[in-house]
Amino acid sequence: MANVTAFQIEGLKIWFYSDDHAPAHFHVKKSGEWEVRVRFMLDKDEMVLIKWSNKRISGKVLKEICDLAEDHRIALLTQWEQIRGN
């Protein structure tokens, strides 16, 4: 597991799994509340897949995640490739 280095959001854990599958994505978790997978190479409206949720996920938070993912695509892809040994 490697923390995303391109950006952080207070109160959220954001990481890659080094042995994860394609397509390129990272995970975001609000402890005890929800976890999503973010496929950052896709359009914003297709990026987020909810893995699990005990509480409603704020649309504002999802928008922030997608905006930052879009803004940092190159850095995210570079880190994705590095941790996977590509």
Descriptive account of the structure:
28% of the residues lie in helices and 26% in strands. The protein has a five-stranded antiparallel beta sheet with strand order 1-2-3-4-5, covered by helices on one side. The longest helix is centred in the C-terminal third of the chain and has 13 residues. Strand 3 and strand 4 form a beta hairpin. It has one domain. With 86 residues, the protein is α+β, with helices and mostly antiparallel strands. The protein contains two helices and five strands, in the order E-E-E-E-E-H-H.
List keywords for this structure.
26% strand, five-stranded antiparallel beta sheet, alpha+beta, 86 residues, globular, single chain
Topology, element by element:
Elements: E1 2-3, E2 13-16, E3 26-30, E4 34-38, E5 48-53, H1 59-71, H2 73-83
Antiparallel strand pairs: 1-2, 2-3, 3-4, 4-5
Beta content: 25-35%
Put simply, the count of helices is: 2
N/C terminus separation: 16 Å
Query: What are the segments in which pLDDT stays under 50 over at least 5 consecutive residues?
Result: none
- The average pLDDT is 95
Number of strands: 5
For the largest beta sheet, what order do the strands appear in spatially? 1-2-3-4-5
Topology order in helix (H) and strand (E) letters: EEEEEHH
Structural class: alpha+beta
Shape: globular
The major pleated sheet works out as: 5 strands, antiparallel
Helix fraction? 25-40%
Question: How many whole angstroms does the radius of gyration measure?
Answer: 12 Å
Count of domains: 1
